[in-house]
Amino acid sequence: MTTQEVANQLVAYMRKGQIMEAQAALYADDIVCMEPETAMAPPYTKGKQAVAEKGKQFASMIEERHGGSCSEPVVGGRYFSISMSIDATFKGMGRQLLDEVCVYEVKDGKIVQEQFFY
Question: How far is CA 28 from CA 36, 53, 94, 103, 109, in A?
Answer without folding.
Answer: 22, 15, 34, 15, 9
